[in-house]
Amino acid sequence: MRGILFRYGDLLPLTKATPRLSLCEGQTPLIPLTNLGSDLAVDLCVKFEGANPTGSFKDRGMVLAVAKAIEGGAKAVVCASTGNTSAAAAAYAARANLPCFVLLPSGKVARGKLAQALIYGARVISVRGNFDRALDLARKASEELGLAIVNSVNPYRLLGQQSAAWEICDELGEAPDRLVIPVGNAGNISAYWAGFNRYRELGRTRDLPQMIGVQAAGASPLVEGHPFDEPETVATAIRIGRPVNAEKAKEAVRESGGRFLAVSDEEILAAQRLLASREGIFAEPASCASLAGLLRLHREEGLPEGIRIVAVLTGNGLKDPDAALNQVPEMVEIDDRWESLREVLAR
Ligand code: AN7
Description:
- By secondary structure, this protein is an alpha/beta fold.
- It contains 14 helices and 10 strands.
- It has helices at residues 4-7, 34-40, 58-71, 84-96, 111-119, 131-145, 155-172, 187-201, 221-224, 246-256, 265-279, 285-300, 321-325, 338-346; strands at residues 30-32, 43-48, 77-80, 100-105, 123-127, 148-149, 178-182, 210-216, 259-263, 308-313.
- The chain binds ligand AN7.
């Protein structure tokens, strides 16, 4: 069987009683950006997490969180989500035959993610409030009703997510010079940093990367240094004003000599178009914050020639078809005659 609990079981806190849950998550492609890399004169790859079974990196941590919930005797799981966590929770709960409750900020979840939570059979509750408020409610439900919370306040989530850093090192033979990653609730950047450090302790990488965390300007508490009460961005996945894992993320950036930066919605969408049109890779807007951040660094400060950079593309572009369709030209429609087609092709 493939999957995180099988491939990296020796590095995870599994016991005999932990069910070996799997949707064959992980082992996602590390794709060289041959065109953009040569433009920037760096050795650039993307970790394409959209290839996971529910289309985002969340599967890596969710498989362990749900397995541990079952081991602990949980009767149901609950989470708040900007969309991807709920898709992953719903899928693994379905697989494990557990009821799943998800709290979503009303009107702010991309359609693909909503469709996923519903078709996997979760009870979906739309909250008139932002993600941060929905998370407060999910925590309350967990405390009051004993539901297992599978947001990244659950330590198993971040443990499972370390596997992405391990895969990168396994494939490259060492850690990259820089890791560029979108930041919302700040769990993933913390998990990568822990993962690289774990691998160094095990002697599986000599060096550690500089960690570059990229936020959307309208939801950039880690850049501005204060919470955002009304976060807003086209990258709805990272529309988060009070990141739960802020302290760990700051530590990762400080210890690695990296930094946080913010990019505008325009930069995010431009990076999404560039990635699709020049490399044939379709990632959701939040994911493209990483590339947008890298382009900003290149423009403003320059990047040392030839360094090895991995940018994390956290979620699949198909998750959010509206974000893509809103920024591309209308298609051409013709009647069904050859003459009509010939005329269009000649333009
Ligand atoms: C595509 O699904 O928080 O900094 O509820 O879906 O670890 O939060 C999603 C986050 C980046 C940010 N890219 O990761 C949720 C949720 C995508 C995401 C992030 C998310 P964290």
